[in-house]
Design brief:
heterodimer, A: alpha/beta, 2 domains, 8 helices, 13 strands, globular, B: Fumarate Reductase Iron-sulfur Protein, Chain B, domain 2, Rossmann fold, 4-stranded parallel beta sheet, 10 strands, 6% strand, elongated
Chain lengths: 293, 667
């Protein structure tokens, strides 16, 4: 089974970004990380590899020189090979469509059974590339996957995340493209020593030119989306409920830290031994009719 | 001498040496087995400066300083051990001389009646009495008082009984011997008393002589039995602990071992054979005294981590389950996974690396180092909890464990002028603020206080500003050695760019890392902790403290300042320089101080089990009538003041010594 995982290098959103002019953003010392949900996608691929012998994982990233850091994370995590689509002048300011075009070319060349993408990138939040990619490859795409099972290497059973904790279970034939939800798992920590080792492994580098893509295919005139303007967010107003003045200072602190509760209902914080607490809870449940008498 | 007699036509000498040969072969076989097990461990150089090691060992063991250092008003047990050690050592020498040479080699005629014998047996008599006192005390402690750190085990009972019977038999030999052979002028007080009593009973001399012989042989058998039992029981420590002290680490306490990924096959430890031979020797040296368990803040707060249990489990693992490795190929990667099957992942993450266990251990076992070694392996495997991942990845990408951006590193100094070294060029003092005091709103007060003190004292200082990054301590304590090395190397590069005489920091963790760990990577700087520095300023009269109202305070020792670097006095002297101060000490202070619970990466690890360590420590301050709990570490300041808030205690304020001084000067 061949799995391709698409991974993106993004700006760390813990660093405050400043709007430079109307269409670009700037950070005095930018910090790049691997898009966290892409790492969850890699994790899912590794889980499949653990179960199915002969599975081969290829990690691909499209980005400028320096984006291979993402691939080091993938290789250190357990990917078998890595491909870096270098965004040269042609691909430099590509939009989702042209990125998908380039990715699609590589996927076709490699051959695949399953393509895994993160649901969204941390920086642009567009969730566009995988849609274009599936369309260009003519394969089904399932979004918001939180759990997956491969059945007889010919189809997958998928659990999709719906609203309010609901799950939709569907099956889909292979090959397919799945977008993985951040709830699907937790990326594994990759140690510095492992990263350093991975950095010494070979990464296949491709440019648009050696993929046979011309300026008219992936250049600005082919863009479907153009950034018109960019603005800094307005600070959000935070609602703070005023706690009961009869509470002690520490209780009030806890109250505020917990985000407060609705003004209507009084919550009470019980303190005491485990037996006492248990009896109080039982009493409350009985009183409210939650527990049958 | 009963050996020179003949029994059932067999010479006593034959019986003597036959018994000895049997016992000794059993003893030697076991010791050789244990010795071979040590070879399963990894290599480690521990024999450098052997002369110094031998002296240090003798100084530690012979006067029993190893035990006596832990004696407090609450725990006098070390004195009992010392009595036993000295008393039994005298007996051991006595056995070799009187039984070995006198009996076995038939040289008793040289000894009998000699002045040496008279004096030595009198000394033994008194020593025996002291040993009996110690044994009765030990038995009472184990079976009646039952302190937290001891378990009433079978092993302990057997040994107490063996030693007790040896003493009683010794008295009997003296008594029967004197009575039977009418030996005169013996000074042994107990032996002669017993002899006097026996003669008075009118038992015939031949009966007494037979009894003497029987008791002598019984005594000999018990000694041999004791010898065989030692390497099978926890009393292996009698043989091993002097060596364990001899091969103790001579490196500074504050530096964890540097890993070279090129050379070291495995990073950290996951199997017992991944430990070095010295760590395995540690296991043999453990006497199950439980002092580590009594000192461990994780254990005291009811968390599952228990250093004593950990060492005992490892010992059992080594002796019972691993020996099959001796038969086959040593490189075979087998053996139980220590982390999941023996110690437990949660336990490994509960350690605060406070060093209390190692500090208190009489035989210098390295419990904490074992835990950090196992952490290193967990990190290599990526088996770390989400909160640890967050902190580590933040250190890697953002340069601090607080998930803050580098550009906001100077926010704490907003509205006041700071000297940046990039602008100042050469300075006397480079003040390293540290991540915690740069980003945490509570700890920012410390750095602001330091600035006002430095300004007041007219120091030519500067800070690194946005070029400052995490020192790497949390990464190293969490087991992320690679990240630590990367951070440290880049910091060393930055620091070497600038010209300064001294590197000043108020964080004991940064201080310890600069002082003890950066030299491993080629970063030698003259590091000074703010407690030393402020003391210098006060003594030089550059900071003058005005007289104010009386203040009652106590000082909480930060682990990385006190236990790690032995700086118990400078912060106390700074406090005492404040006029009208009244210091009180908490029950656990200085080397025995309890950790605040935030070190070793615990600041970013969510402990789920047991009580909060910082609350327990805060309660200890509450026992005293004080207004201020002073400390000299941003971690301690943050978590202890949080503990105060949680406990609703508004009467005691937790503050750093710098804040205390700055407040006084402002007035």
């Amino acid at each position: 089974m061949r799995i391709i995982v698409c991974m993106k290098q993004v700006l760390d959103n813990r660093v405050t970004l400043q709007v430079n002019d109307s269409v670009t953003q700037k950070e005095p010392s930018p910090v790049y990380i691997t898009n966290p949900v892409d790492r969850v996608a890699l994790q899912k691929a590794l889980e499949i590899k653990d179960l199915l012998e002969g599975t081969e994982i290829t990690a691909i990233t499209a980005g400028p020189a320096g984006a291979e850091q993402v691939l080091h994370v993938a290789l250190a995590g357990g990917a078998d090979q890595a491909i870096h689509l270098i965004k040269d002048n042609t691909l430099e300011a590509s939009d989702a469509y042209t990125t998908a075009l380039a990715l699609g070319k590589v996927c076709k060349e490699l051959g695949y059974t399953l393509i895994l993408c993160g649901q969204m990138s941390l920086d642009t939040n567009a969730a566009q590339v995988h849609a274009f990619l599936a369309e260009l490859l003519g394969i089904p795409r399932v979004t918001g996957v939180v759990r997956l099972e491969v059945i007889l290497q010919e189809r997958v059973r998928l659990w999709r995340r719906l609203e309010r904790g609901r799950r939709q279970v569907i099956e889909c034939p292979l090959p397919a493209l799945l977008t993985i939800d951040s709830l699907a798992g937790r990326p594994q920590y990759v140690s510095e020593f492992n990263l350093r080792q991975a950095a010494e492994r070979q990464i296949r580098q491709l440019t648009s030119a050696n993929m046979g893509l011309s300026q008219s295919d992936v250049g600005p005139q082919a863009f479907l989306v153009r950034v018109v303007s960019l603005s800094s967010p307005k600070p959000r107003v935070k609602k703070i409920y005023v706690p009961d003045s009869s509470m002690s200072t520490s209780q009030r602190m806890n109250y505020l830290l917990s985000g407060g509760t609705s003004g209507r209902k009084r919550s009470s914080l019980l303190e005491g031994t485990a037996d006492y607490l248990a009896s109080q809870i039982v009493e409350y449940l009985t009183k409210e009719g939650i527990k049958p008498k | 001498m009963p050996v020179s007699a003949t029994y059932w036509n067999v010479s006593g000498y034959v019986i003597f040496w036959l018994l000895f040969a049997i016992a000794f072969s059993l003893f030697a076989q076991r010791v050789y087995f244990l010795f071979r097990l040590l070879h399963l461990g990894q290599k480690e150089e521990r024999s450098e400066s052997i002369g110094h090691r031998i002296t240090a060992m003798l100084v530690d063991v012979l006067p029993q300083w190893c035990n006596l250092k832990t004696v407090t008003r609450q725990d006098l047990a070390g004195m009992g051990h010392s009595l036993l050690f000295w008393g039994f050592s005298l007996f051991l020498i006595g056995y070799i001389i009187f039984i070995g040479f006198g009996g076995g080699f038939g040289l008793s005629s040289l000894l009998e009646g000699s002045k040496f014998e008279t004096i030595y047996s009198s000394i033994l008599d008194i020593a025996g009495l002291l040993v009996i006192v110690a044994i009765v005390w030990a038995a009472i402690r184990r079976y009646i008082l039952k302190p937290f750190r001891l378990e009433a085990s079978m092993e302990a009972g057997v040994i107490l009984l063996l030693v007790f019977s040896l003493m009683v038999l010794h008295f009997c030999i003296e008594g029967f011997g004197c009575a039977a052979y009418r030996a005169q002028a013996s000074w042994s007080p107990i032996g002669t008393t017993l002899a006097y009593f026996l003669t008075g009973t009118g038992i015939s001399e031949s009966t007494l002589a037979t009894a003497y012989k029987a008791v002598w042989w019984l005594h000999y058998l018990v000694i041999l039995g004791f010898m065989v039992y030692i390497p099978y029981s926890k009393h292996l420590h009698i043989l091993v602990s002097p060596f364990n002290v001899l091969f103790k680490s001579l490196a500074s306490k504050g530096a964890l071992k540097l890993i070279d990924p090129e050379k070291d096959k495995t990073v950290g430890v996951s199997k017992i054979q991944d430990f070095t031979w010295k760590h395995l020797l540690d296991l043999y040296a453990c006497t199950v005294c439980g002092r580590c368990q009594d000192a461990c803040p994780a254990c005291l707060s009811g968390k599952p981590l228990n250093p004593k249990k950990m060492i005992q489990d490892m010992k059992r693992q080594l002796i019972v389950e691993v020996p099959y490795l001796l038969k086959g190929n040593k490189t075979v990667n087998t053996g139980c996974d220590l982390i999941t099957e023996l110690v437990g992942e949660d336990e490994i993450w509960e350690c605060t690396t406070c060093y209390a266990c190692q500090e208190v251990c009489p035989v210098i076992i390295e419990q904490m180092i074992k835990i950090t070694d196992m952490r290193r392996n967990l990190v290599e495997q990526g088996r770390v909890s989400p909160s640890v991942v967050k902190a580590l990845e933040s250190m890697r990408s953002l340069g601090n464990p607080w998930e803050q951006s580098q550009s906001s590193r100077l926010d704490w100094a907003e509205g006041r002028g700071v000297n940046l070294i990039q602008e100042r060029g050469e300075v006397e003092v480079l003040y390293w603020v540290g991540c915690t005091s740069a980003y945490d709103s509570c700890a920012q007060d410390i750095s602001r206080a330091m600035l006002s003190l430095l300004d007041k004292a007219n120091i030519n200082y500067a800070i690194l500003g946005t070029e400052e990054r995490c020192c790497g301590d949390p990464a190293r304590r969490m087991g992320e050695e690679g990240l630590f090395q990367r951070i440290a190397r880049s910091n060393i590069e930055v620091l070497k760019k600038y010209h300064f005489e001294r590197l000043l920091t108020h964080c004991p963790h940064c201080f310890n890392t600069f002082k003890n760990e950066y030299p491993q990577l080629g970063g030698q700087f003259e590091v000074v902790h703010h407690s030393q520095f402020l003391l210098e300023l006060i003594r030089a009269g550059r900071i003058k403290l005005p007289e104010e109202q009386e203040l009652r305070l106590t000082f909480h020792d930060p682990c990385y300042l006190g236990r790690y670097n032995g700086m118990y006095d400078p912060p106390r002297q700074v406090l005492q320089a404040i006029p009208k101060i009244r210091m009180a000490e908490m029950k656990l202070n200085k080397a025995k101080a309890m950790c605040c619970g935030a070190g070793g990466g615990q600041m970013w690890i969510q402990a789920e089990k047991g009580r909060r360590i910082e609350e327990m420590r805060f309660e200890q301050a509450q026992e005293l009538n004080v207004q201020i709990m002073a400390t000299a570490c941003p971690y301690c300041t943050i978590v202890l003041s949080e503990a105060g808030r949680i406990r609703g205690a508004t009467k005691i304020k937790v503050t750093d010594i710098a804040e205390l001084l700055a407040e006084r000067i402002k007035g």
